[in-house]
Structures are given as C-alpha cells and as structure tokens.
Amino acid sequence: MLELPEVEVLRKDLEKEVVGKRVKDVIVETTSIVRPFHHTRPHFIKSLEGKKIEGARRRGRTIFLDLDEEMTWVIDARGSASLHRQTANEDPGPDTHLVVTFTIGGAIHLSDHDTEPDVSTGVVPTEESMEAVGFTGRGFDPLEDNVTWMEFQQLLADADKPLKLAFMDPNVISGIGPVYSDEILYEAGLRYDRESDSLTSQEVRRLFRAMHEVIAAAMKFRGSSLDETDPDDAIDDDGEAVEHLKVYGRDGLPSLRSRKPIEKADLGNGVVAYYDPQSQY
Length: 281
Fold this sequence. Notes:
This protein has about 280 residues and is α+β, with helices and mostly antiparallel strands. A hairpin with a 2-residue loop joins strand 11 and strand 12. Helix 1 runs parallel beside helix 7 and helix 6 packs across helix 7. The radius of gyration is 19 Å and the shape is elongated. About 5% of the residues have low confidence.
C-alpha cells in the first residue's frame, strides 16, 4: 500500500537511480492499467519506448517521471499496488502488470495482487500531467505545501466530516490513506469519528504537529508497505515502519499508551479505523 511516505521515498530512489536513463522495452501485462490515458496498449508502449527520463516529481500518492520531448510518464498506484526497482533480467512475478527496462540496465515493475488492480499509468504532455490525474488544486501536500496550522484548521472545518474520512479525502489532504490517518489520529489523541469542524485550536495544533511527526518518522524507516486486505502482511521488505505502527492492524493488542486493547471500527464502504478508545477522544 503506497501512501505519501512510501511514495516520497520511492521518488527519491527513482531520482537517484532512474533519472538520466532511457527506456528500452515496455511490456504491459494488463491493458486496463493504461486505458485511463491510452486507447490501446501499443499506443502506450510507443509513447514510452525510447524516451529519456529527465526528472522525478510527486504529488500526493502519484509519481510523475518527466521525459524528454515535454512529456511525462504518470504512475498512479493505489490500494495494494507497489512499484519495484529490479535488475533488467529479473523475471516478473505473477502479479506484475507492467515491466519497463532501460538501455543501460535496471527495470521498473508495477505490481498489484488484486484481481482488479487499482493502478493507472500513461504518458501525457507535461503541462497537462496534473490535470490528467485529477488534481484540482484543492487539498494540500504535507511535504510540498507550506500550510499553517490555521489554514489546516480551515480546511478541516470546510470538510465537515469525521476526521478519518477528512484525512483520506484528497481534496483536504493529498497522499494520506488508511494507515497514516489512523497513526496520526492516535498520535494526536483524537478519535476517528470526531467531526473535523469540532476541534478546538489546541486540538488542531496537536493534530497538525502529529501529522508532520508521523510522516517524518515513517520516511525515516522507508515507509510501511502493507497489504490493505491484510494489515499483518508486509508486501515489500524495503518498508520498515510496519514494525513501528502503533494502532493500524493492531486490533485486540494492547495500546502502547493505555495498555487497553486497540479496537477496530467499521465506517462503511470498506473503510475501517483502528484506535485506542481509552486515549483518543
């Protein structure tokens, strides 16, 4: 599961190891992943093969690899999707949907073990890349945008929904998903179902600080690559923060703060929240 910390770590890795390389071969195993941008699989392959990668950007959970000829390769991987850097001769696994190799060695594998992968990728004009993936300018990126806690308070008030859902709404905060929303709320001592417009200024400041601290700590450990359908299963050995999660996927285990069992709540539509009822209000 790729959320903001994992994607930023990945962006930095790609910046070091992929920028400057030229695409040699492109193999698309699952046509559906390119359909949001291309009518056919050959059209995507033709758009990417032979292109040189000149830069690596990120917004929220989306990677933008800028190419020559003012084009950009967009990789929007959500849910249980993962992006791996591999050697050029590494055989793709059964869940691999895209393999891109480079002329001077190395490859990228885009994988998702879900039967219906929540992944989209394509090549678009650079000037249209943000619009192509639906970024409207709303929602701030905690690592990119210099937002004050007072502006953060206004965003939460305007969202007017339970905190868990506000954090997962890309029109409020860009890049936070099910894992780090729970971790941030735990760190701030706030329940998942508190209405986002009900917080005091002190609570907003505490939540704002917790958000930045949790993201920074996760990046230090290179993220926590989890399987959303099975939080106990790490799907990428590179992510170490899974060992440091305090509430997500820990229902029934004692809270590190209160020593009472962590509980799991169902918010509907497949969204659940893990929290400590003794210390989150």
